Automatic annotation (TrEMBL):
Disordered: region residues: 121-188
Protein name, UniProt field: FHA domain-containing protein
Keyword Coiled coil: no
PROSITE patterns: FHA_DOMAIN (PS50006)
Protein's organism: Streptomyces thermogriseus
Residue span, FHA domain: 209-257
């Protein structure tokens, strides 16, 4: 069973208690959990063959209405999300330099249903466990997080590329992913399009591709949280994705939306399944 599914089931076990009000929020906890997984993937730093360090301190920025709904349960929700990050890191063989913490903050510039994730690496001098998903002690002389905090690799980490991409909304710089999936070679100078689901590639050979649980969909996704005809990808300049009136909607690069522009590497969450959109030019 996937880490996100286990996380969702743990929360469902609390529905009959006071924590149930969390599920009335426009932003669902499982969406935040998926964004934290992507934050780990996108900010992973390879130190050596056996050690890939990911952030351990996260801030989830919410719109004022969503924050008001979730803040009374921020401690319990933060603990559940931290546990999910720990499980995911163990699965991916990631390591941390300190304890995992997830905080909620209010952002006045966000509309209801939207959220933003920031992260940083904070070292803990007391940690001496060295197993996947565990915290690591800081290197000699390590003062903790790098100046500027969120969005920066830990001090002592291998240098990042000299020209990182611009920061995402919120003004915090984010390092690029450490590794990129291999590109499908293109012929004749034309653009090739495909998606990746659980390591399997699905070539987009027509202008549109429908994703859903139905056998009539171009790509069938066996996920109870996915509608029969969930969403449609349209290739072009630029490519776009459109929700087709699904029950649970779509999340693109951490934003819950009904329509979005896609770029190479965009991450689409439908139900509890992550779809990676890819394109390459000849």
């Amino acid at each position: 069973m996937g880490v996100l599914k286990k996380f969702e089931q743990r929360l469902e076990g609390l529905v009959n208690g006071t924590f149930a009000k969390v599920f009335k929020s426009e932003v669902q906890p499982v969406e935040i959990a998926g964004a934290l997984q992507r934050e780990c993937d996108n900010n992973a730093t390879i130190w050596n063959r056996d050690r890939t360090v990911v952030p351990n301190d996260f801030i989830v920025e919410l719109s004022a209405p969503d924050y008001e709904r979730l803040s009374p349960y921020s401690g319990q929700l933060g603990d559940e999300l931290a546990g999910m990050v720990r499980d995911y890191a163990k699965q991916q063989r990631y390591t941390f330099m300190g304890p995992i913490k997830v905080h909620l903050e209010k952002a006045e510039d966000l509309d209801t249903g939207l959220y933003r994730v920031r992260s940083r690496t904070l070292a803990s001098s007391s940690s001496n466990h060295q197993a996947p998903g565990a915290s690591y002690p800081a290197p000699p002389g390590h003062p903790g997080a790098a100046p500027g905090g969120y969005g920066y690799p830990p001090v002592g980490a291998p240098p990042m590329p000299s020209a990182p991409p611009p920061g995402r909304p919120g003004g915090y710089g984010y390092p690029p992913p450490v590794q990129r999936p291999p590109q499908i070679p293109s012929a004749g100078g034309r653009t090739r399009y495909w998606i990746e689901i659980n390591g399997t590639r699905h070539q987009i050979s027509r202008p549109t591709m429908v994703l859903g649980r139905s056998t009539d969909a171009d790509v069938r996704i066996d996920d109870p949280g996915v509608s029969r005809r969930h969403c449609e990808i349209r290739t072009g300049m630029p490519s776009t994705i459109q929700d087709l009136g699904s029950t649970n909607g779509i999340v693109v690069d951490g934003q819950h939306t009904t329509r979005a522009t896609l770029r190479d590497g965009s991450r689409i969450v439908v139900g509890s399944t992550t779809v990676i959109y890819r394109q390459a030019e000849g």
